[in-house]
TrEMBL record:
<feature type="transmembrane region" description="Helical">
    <location>
        <begin position="361"/>
        <end position="382"/>
    </location>
</feature>
<feature type="transmembrane region" description="Helical">
    <location>
        <begin position="323"/>
        <end position="341"/>
    </location>
</feature>
<dbReference type="Pfam" id="PF01970">
    <property type="entry name" value="TctA"/>
</dbReference>
<feature type="transmembrane region" description="Helical">
    <location>
        <begin position="415"/>
        <end position="431"/>
    </location>
</feature>
<feature type="transmembrane region" description="Helical">
    <location>
        <begin position="204"/>
        <end position="224"/>
    </location>
</feature>
<feature type="transmembrane region" description="Helical">
    <location>
        <begin position="148"/>
        <end position="164"/>
    </location>
</feature>
<keyword id="KW-0812">Transmembrane</keyword>
<feature type="transmembrane region" description="Helical">
    <location>
        <begin position="46"/>
        <end position="70"/>
    </location>
</feature>
<feature type="transmembrane region" description="Helical">
    <location>
        <begin position="110"/>
        <end position="136"/>
    </location>
</feature>
<feature type="transmembrane region" description="Helical">
    <location>
        <begin position="21"/>
        <end position="40"/>
    </location>
</feature>
<keyword id="KW-1133">Transmembrane helix</keyword>
<keyword id="KW-0472">Membrane</keyword>
<feature type="transmembrane region" description="Helical">
    <location>
        <begin position="438"/>
        <end position="455"/>
    </location>
</feature>
<feature type="domain" description="DUF112">
    <location>
        <begin position="21"/>
        <end position="442"/>
    </location>
</feature>
<feature type="transmembrane region" description="Helical">
    <location>
        <begin position="467"/>
        <end position="491"/>
    </location>
</feature>
<feature type="transmembrane region" description="Helical">
    <location>
        <begin position="394"/>
        <end position="409"/>
    </location>
</feature>
<protein>
    <submittedName>
        <fullName>Tripartite tricarboxylate transporter permease</fullName>
    </submittedName>
</protein>
Amino acid sequence: MGDQLGNLMNGFANALTPMNLMWVFVGCLLGTAVGVLPGLGSSMAVALLLPVTFSLDPVAAFIMFAGIYYGGLFGDSTTAILLNTPGNSSAIASTFEGHRMAKRGRAPQALATSAIGAFTGGLLATILVAFFAPVLADLATVFGPAEYFALAVVAFIATAAVVSDSAVKGIAALGIGLALALIGIDGISGASRFTFGLPSLLDGIDIVVITVGLLALGEVLHVASRIHKDSTATAMTVGKRPFLSKGEFREAMPAWLRGTAWGLPFGAIPAGGSEIPTFLAFGTERRLDRRRKDPQFGKGAIRGLAAPEAAANATAGSAMGSLLALGLPTSATAAIMLAAFQQYGMQPGPLLFTRNGDLVWALLASLFIGMFVLLIINLPFAPLWAKLLLIPKPYLYAGITVFAALGVYATSSSIVDLVLLVLLGLLGFVLRRFGMPLAPVLIAVILGPLAETSLRRTLAVSEGDAGALFASGITLTLYGLLAVGIVWVVISKIRGRARVDI
């Protein structure tokens, strides 16, 4: 422990120079600026801005990268909260209560909640990485195909049962998402499925197209359909109070810590990025909220935003430990960072701390610095970002539509993707019209391929023996927790109906 602390202090000595501080400041600004553009997001911000860092020396380059990394994550949440358009799939869970807060005139508080949650989750995760990276690496090695499948099943059922008030609607939405996930080439056999003869669908439907279509364009169509029927559907205001009150801070603090606890272990395992912990954190807060005398979920619950934000950034932080200790990228952004290491002739893995220790510890120090700089920049700017909602509604939603189309087209230059965007927007509108939840659709699209591939690999290795799905302690624990959760939900609903009958 003492050696790690000394190495970290040396890293801060290398990182805390006026020029390096300028680069982390520039990185935070650029990452946030690109991240807030609908359809782009944090991974696109990193990909677009990474070449800029190659002209710098390695320490300055990775310090600037740290700013871009966390700035892009905050940009994802900004568009999720204000425009109901997550820049990346890690911010999907933040749209549910975050956007409701914005619609009720609490956009500055929502953005402040996001910034502090990102800081809390990222800070605790980076501390964990700095001192316990080998432990995180060991966690990643114990997960095989059967464990990944169990994890996906738990995420499917938990999301379908928790996010929706109706289990039937939740499962139906899950089925729609799994159907979308089947489009493309089968990863095991190489056969094409449901592509309708279109070569552009061989790789499946991009997650950016699905999230922007269902959430952004679907919201635009929903608002447009009710603009003359329900004036509150488009009535957005920006409150005068820019920051969190003491009461709001006390309410959000436990959710930040619970969200961080969900996010920390998931960064070390390649189980679909930060989507699982953000949804699990959201579901936990929703279950706790139902026990309150005055439930807030559905009205803009601050805890429903605080927990997913902390979980997403805790996952992003612990993913760095998996990358550095194992050379295992567990997210798209981590994969881009792996390319950055290789650009400088370094290979992340067990020997990285020995061969390139000075640079690694400077990078870890820069992650701490980047989070503080991001908090300093974005807390004062929260009211300014919130004023986007003061744009007249026809112009605002027209702008969302234009930026969504441009963002989707920029990622692939495909007309087919634009057609899919419109079709998915209509699907999102229909789902809203009939009160079906969007979260199960999105989590099924994201984790469907992982679940299918893991299931088929497990059965292939075991020669068709289904018992292999339950052969390890981890899988039995996950299925056991799932069974307990289902029984608890059923009992709670039975008791609820009994109270109503009385």
